[in-house]
């Protein structure tokens, strides 16, 4: 995982669609994207960049390629979360949660659910 790099916003958007679809042709990815739809060549270029970066692989079907994730969503989520905690919250998950509580982005029900999760991990 140390070799993985963070993706650009556009690359992440494409990866989310491929993760959701379980693999896709460029036309399938475009169909899932919101309006205004990007050009086919734009998506095709991003997909090839993702393949070069080691996030995707493809299987050829004549002139078409079906792209599949090499890097799973949970693996990438771990990388991004660790980087966020390291860079903005002094390597403290507690500081991250405190931030969301202070900014009122967690309501009491969500805090209660977190407490239950913490307690279940101690058992």
TrEMBL record:
Q: Mind listing the GO molecular function terms for this protein?
A: DNA binding
Q: Name one Pfam family in it.
A: Penicillinase_R
Mind telling me which Gene3D superfamilies this protein's record contains? Penicillinase repressor domain, Winged helix-like DNA-binding domain superfamily/Winged helix DNA-binding domain
The protein's UniProt keywords, in alphabetical order, are: DNA-binding, Transcription, Transcription regulation
The answer on whether this UniProt entry bears the keyword Phosphoprotein reads no
GO terms, biological process? negative regulation of DNA-templated transcription
Cite the SUPFAM superfamilies for this sequence. Winged helix' DNA-binding domain (SSF46785)
Q: Which family does it belong to?
A: Belongs to the BlaI transcriptional regulatory family.
The name this protein carries in UniProt is: BlaI/MecI/CopY family transcriptional regulator
Q: What is the lineage of its organism?
A: Bacteria, Pseudomonadati, Bacteroidota, Sphingobacteriia, Sphingobacteriales
């Amino acid at each position: 995982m140390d070799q993985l790099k963070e993706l650009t916003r556009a690359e992440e958007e494409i990866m989310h669609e491929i993760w959701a679809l379980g693999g896709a042709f460029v036309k399938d990815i475009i169909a899932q994207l919101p309006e205004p739809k990007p050009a086919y060549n734009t998506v095709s270029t991003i997909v090839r960049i993702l393949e070069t970066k080691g996030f995707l692989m493809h299987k050829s079907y004549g002139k078409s390629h079906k792209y599949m994730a090499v890097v799973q969503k949970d693996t990438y989520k771990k990388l991004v979360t660790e980087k966020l905690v390291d860079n903005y919250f002094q390597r403290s998950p507690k500081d991250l949660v405190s931030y969301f509580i202070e900014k009122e982005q967690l309501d009491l029900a969500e805090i209660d659910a977190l407490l239950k999760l913490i307690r279940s991990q101690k058992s």
